[in-house]
Design brief:
mainly alpha, Methane Monooxygenase Hydroxylase, Chain G, domain 1
Length: 118
């Protein structure tokens, strides 16, 4: 029964931390400091020209998602290599399937021309 108090205490600490951070953010953001240029996106003193709501191409996001996917793969491969002797054939087959699925996704993205920079 004492284990439940650790969970309750951790939950209370987590919820109170969230509200504390939100409250501090509200306090800091509602102070009026500086002049009228303080709220502009760039505080270099140079007025912006043209459309300031420029859009990024989808290729930036695709590269980021591919990076995250293969970054996770590296973490899994590292952990798999640490316990390789204990996993036997099942671990080898499951990791091979994991790598195969990621390589198929990379081949698909490559074939569609996602990795070409325009």
């Amino acid at each position: 029964m004492t284990g439940i108090w650790y969970v309750v205490g951790l939950g209370v600490a987590g919820v109170s931390f969230v509200f504390l951070v939100l409250g501090l953010g509200w306090l800091v953001s509602h102070r009026n400091r500086g002049d009228r240029h303080k709220g502009v996106p760039y505080e270099s003193g140079i007025d912006t020209y043209g459309d300031t709501w420029g859009r990024f191409g989808i290729s930036f996001y695709v590269y980021a998602l591919l990076f995250v996917a293969f970054d996770v793969e590296v973490v899994f491969l590292y952990l798999w290599a640490i316990v390789f002797r204990d996993l036997l054939m099942g671990g080898l087959v499951s990791m091979g399937t994991f790598v195969l699925v990621l390589m198929l996704g990379l081949a698909y993205a490559w074939r569609k021309g996602v990795l070409t920079w325009r």
